[in-house]
Amino acid sequence: MTEVGETANRVESLIDEANDFEKLCNCDLNSASSVIDEGEILMKDPLSSVDHIESKCEELRRTSSLLIDKIQKRNLLLTKARELMDRIDKANDWCATGVEILAGEGGLLAVDKLLEDAKSFGLTAPEQFRDMLMQSATQETRALVTQVLE
To answer: What is the C-alpha separation between 119 and 4, in angstroms, rounded?
Structure first.
């Protein structure tokens, strides 16, 4: 579960898979919580082996916590990958429009509109655009980001 996808469609597919996996894990996490609750009840019984039950409950707590943490990190990574793909698609569209304008007889009005559209990226200088994309890139998406920036 380390892939982040190289296309918007693949990222969406991975997000769906991660959501399905999270649902499966939630069933296991609920079961673990119930077992921990039962263990807490058993530890109150003076005839129980408290040390053994307590260690198993603690192990379940740690494992559950680790699983929740991994799921959250995966979801965050995929969300960032989706945002990156959206920005790359938007940048590609913007560049294609610019090429069409430069190749045609659009004139200064079309160039001004293109520059106005560039403000939708929320950046004030071209260097910021490059920096923003490179910061969002992962090792898997770095080649695609570099291609867009050229």
So the answer is: 28
Contact criterion met (CB below 8 Å) for 85 and 5: yes
Instruction: State phi, psi for 49 to the nearest 5 degrees.
Output: -85, 90
Provide the greatest CA pair distance for the chain: 90
Domain boundaries, the chain: 8-149
Query: pLDDT tens for residues 13-40?
Result: 999 999 999 999 999 999 999 999 999 8
The CA-atom distances, in angstroms, between 99 and each of 75, 89, 113 are 36, 15, 13
Can you give the length of the chain in residues?
150
- CA pair distance 24, 47, nearest whole angstrom: 36
pTM of the model as a whole: 0.63
State both tokens at 150.
């050229």
**What's the rounded Cα separation, in Å, for the pair 106 and 110?**
5
Q: Quick one: tokens of 123?
A: 């950046």
User: 48, exposed or middle or buried, with CB in 10 Å at 0-12, 13-18, 19+?
Assistant: middle
Alpha helices (H) along the chain: 8-43, 50-103, 107-118, 126-136, 142-149
Percentage of residues in the chain having pLDDT higher than 90: 34
